[in-house]
Design brief:
Length: about 140
């Protein structure tokens, strides 16, 4: 599969939708995707953040392979993009990314989500960058 993102891919990925991130699970667990906020960065990389100390970060340090899928919401024609690749961790830019994503995903609802935002502001975060190695897509 071509790891380049198309204009159709970017149209979907530039919307404030959740990505479902899957990383290698702990040996006693099943793979379990988790919803994450993200943005598309230069070169088609996806950036997201994670709170330091989470099991997800421990798994990614052991094995940086991950996949995300982003799908159009119910009620729209089926459209999804799946991206597989390796994730790098960066402290630099993590807090700035978190602030951009809070604005992107909460936008006008900042007041209604004040408690969640306060908790994020108190958290130490790391920036995760997914480098596409395989991209699959479908659109009706």
């Amino acid at each position: 599969m071509n790891p380049e993102l198309t204009a159709d891919d970017l149209e979907l990925l530039n919307r404030p939708l959740h990505a479902m991130l899957t990383v290698r699970p702990h040996p006693s667990r099943w793979p379990a995707p988790r919803p994450v906020w993200f943005e598309v960065a230069d070169g088609g990389r996806l950036q997201m953040f994670s709170v330091v100390g989470t099991p997800r970060l421990a798994r990614l340090r052991e094995d940086p392979r991950a996949s995300v899928i982003v799908a159009a919401p119910v009620g729209e024609p089926e459209h999804w993009v799946s991206i597989e690749g390796r994730i790098d961790h960066h402290e630099e830019g993590a807090r700035e990314l978190m602030l951009r994503l809070i604005d992107r995903y909460y936008g006008a609802d900042l007041e209604a989500n004040r408690a969640a935002i306060r908790a994020l502001h108190r958290s130490e975060v790391v920036r995760l960058v997914l480098h596409p190695e395989r991209v699959q897509r479908y659109r009706i």
